[in-house]
Amino acid sequence: MKRLAAASPDFDLARVTEQHRETYQVISVAGPLPAEIAGKLRHDLTVATELPAVGDWVLITVTPDQQLALIQRVLPRQSVLERAAVGKTGAGQIIAANVDTIFICMSLNANFNVHRVERYLTMAWDSGAVPVVVLTKADLCADVTAKLDELADVTMGVDVITCSAQTGDGVDALKAYVTGNRTVSFIGSSGVGKSTLINGLLGGDVLATKAIRTDDDKGRHTTTSRELLRVPTGGVVIDTPGMRELQVQSGDLTKAFADITTLASQCKFRNCTHQTEPGCAVQAAITTGELDASRLASYRKLQLEISYSDMSARERENAKIQRFFGSKKEMKRTMEHVQKIRRR
């Protein structure tokens, strides 16, 4: 980054530490400053994912009164953690940039959900960063070993850390990832304890925290915006708001579903859909119990979600019609048949 900055001597190198609707916070050698996007850069941007995000390295100029930084350029990202924007736009939303490690946080209470981890891992592997599954609130779980067994197939090749902010167990294991100039991003649902763990790394109550609701064991939103924070012992962490809805914009199913990928390489046909084809190694593994059918169902669901992500609303609708009916003509025939039955 310094080399790229040196090629633009009229600008200063900075990193985005906070992101709000129209404003940012950046930090450079001169210290922290509020920031806005320069007019030329805003004009040149073509898609929302090109906007600065927390973790981005940027080139800035500072106003004469030294009170505001203007972001002139976003430098190339080494990794990008991205999800589909909430709603029906299909657009991408950058969660964090230039991350080395992604802590996928899930609590060992009612929040525990194996398929949610599959979705997070699909997104994380695609980012270019290394995922680590962090199981929080171990003190509230009666059988941690059973939960780890449930995750065994999903987390192949991924470090899994079990911790409790209340007892302090596992917190030192997290510190091993946050060293030097490394950047770690925390992601997960609301109330899983991300902010509490970050406070443990920061050595104080820097971030606000809230207890889970006792009536349904679900968490409440604490973090409302993304924020980059420097850890006193080295490294930086990025806190992100809890994600109740996780739509995958793109993903690496090869790594997130390495077990299915390995089996698929043994199928008789290269284009096997793992449904009714003869010589399907995936279906054979399900028959013998080597692979759980729900695992394949998750794989197919994410395949479809990713394939739809780059389509317009009309293209997605046509793809769904093709999938369920074969053609619009066949859909019309089916609807007419249903209507005739209802009239009887």
UniProtKB/TrEMBL annotation:
Residues 89-246 form the CP-type G domain. Its main location: cytoplasm. InterPro entries: G_CP_dom, P-loop_NTPase, Ribosome_biogen_GTPase_RsgA, RsgA_GTPase_dom. Its cofactor is Zn(2+). Keywords: Cytoplasm, GTP-binding, Hydrolase, Metal-binding, Nucleotide-binding, Ribosome biogenesis, RNA-binding, rRNA-binding, Zinc. Pfam families: RsgA_GTPase. GO terms for molecular function: GTP binding; GTPase activity; metal ion binding; rRNA binding. Zn(2+) binds at C267, C272, H274, C280. Residues 97-244 form the EngC GTPase domain. Binds 1 zinc ion per subunit. GO terms for cellular component: cytoplasm. It is found in: Cytoplasm. Monomer. Associates with 30S ribosomal subunit, binds 16S rRNA. PANTHER family: SMALL RIBOSOMAL SUBUNIT BIOGENESIS GTPASE RSGA (PTHR32120:SF10). Belongs to the TRAFAC class YlqF/YawG GTPase family. RsgA subfamily. One of several proteins that assist in the late maturation steps of the functional core of the 30S ribosomal subunit. Helps release RbfA from mature subunits. May play a role in the assembly of ribosomal proteins into the subunit. Circularly permuted GTPase that catalyzes slow GTP hydrolysis, GTPase activity is stimulated by the 30S ribosomal subunit. This is Small ribosomal subunit biogenesis GTPase RsgA.
